[in-house]
């Protein structure tokens, strides 16, 4: 084979390179997320909520907003007001200690919180863009974001 | 659990769950969804605005303040990006189809209170490609913000300018927010929803409740005995651009 002295090491390096994540992480353990559970029972069982909360929330939003069905009767006959902010978060008092712990672990960033307000929020933050602009002293008027001095 | 075990388990459960759907994917059995008890209901919600009472108190903006606070409507000073659910404009702009050089002496520059008309045949609903805007059976033209893709067809279709687009993240413009109600995000359209979230709890809309002069009357247009029906029978009222055939459910009592 022509250039085998270069090609073969090249192949070896390539294989090592693409399999890097596998052997680098080999036998390393990553701590499982520990969401902080509130006391009491959720609308459904823990196992069901763990595996199906996204389906349930999706169904909830359609039933409540589109069909006007605000009351959910769970499998053990209890009734709940369907709402993320005024339902779920009344028990899960801290989004960062519950939702975020698993979502960050799984690298899932749902956009619920672009609109829904988590209970720990006291004030809305400035958008990232305008913080950057201030760093570089770009007058907010130029880009039309809120003038923080006014 | 380490990543290896997790992946193994994930692979096994995915295979099993895919193969035996009825068994492993079994959902929770009893799932009943019902409307809330004690909700206010109607066959067609409507609003009458006693505009003469408004004119007696030109400084009063209680309805606007209440609505915008309770729904986290941002206050954006830039007119091109502003968001509004209920606002005031002058006669000439509100009723451009009713010019009358003599009448204008009476009505010129008079402020009118404006909001979504919750039309009976809403063009905004017809054009929405995702059905984010839809009409409920009780006449409320609803927005499902989860579904809005921000195409703004509805804004082009609404002849009343009742819709606002979020050009920027609205949150920095909300000074005092209501933690019970979500905000919107950049890229969606919003408008008045006749306080559906209050009707569900048996409350009347926030603007109607906030009006200390009782200039706003909210009720069922199809119920002959409702206050609004009686008022509309006994007094002269006009609607915006009624000739377009959208059938606005907001009436201005002027006589
Ligand atoms: S006023 Fe505009 S937004 Fe409201 S229902 Fe009519 S067409 Fe739609
Ligand atoms: S902007 Fe949103 S609500 Fe309006 S037509 Fe497009 S998807 Fe529908």
Textual characterization of the structure:
The complex is a heterodimer of chains A (150) and B (255). Chain A is mostly helical and 150 residues long. Helix content of chain A is 45%, strand content 4%. Chain A has a two-stranded antiparallel ribbon. The longest helix of chain A is centred in the middle third of the chain and has 21 residues, at 46-66. The N and C termini of chain A lie far apart (74 Å). The model of chain A has no long low-confidence stretch (mean pLDDT 85). Chain B is of the alpha+beta class. The radius of gyration of chain B is 23 Å and the shape is elongated. A 4-stranded mixed beta sheet of chain B has the order 9-2-11-10. The longest helix of chain B has 17 residues, at 3-19. Chain B has helices at 3-19, 21-24, 51-56, 62-70, 91-94, 103-107, 123-127, 153-157, 196-199, 206-210, 227-234, and strands at 32-34, 45-50, 86-90, 111-115, 133-135, 141-143, 164-165, 189-190, 216-220, 237-238, 250-253. In chain B, strand 5 and strand 6 (141-143) form a beta hairpin. Helix content of chain B is 28%, strand content 16%. The chains are: A mainly alpha (150), B alpha+beta (255). The A-B interface holds A 25, 27-30, 32, 44-45, 48, 52, 55, 61, 63, 65-77, 81-82, 85-86, 111, 114-117, 119, 121, 124-127, 130, 144-146, 150 and B 1-4, 27-37, 39, 76-78, 81, 134, 136, 142, 144-146, 168-169, 171-174, 177, 179-185, 200. Strand 1 (71-73) of chain A pairs antiparallel with strand 1 (32-34) of chain B. The complex binds iron/sulfur cluster (2 copies).
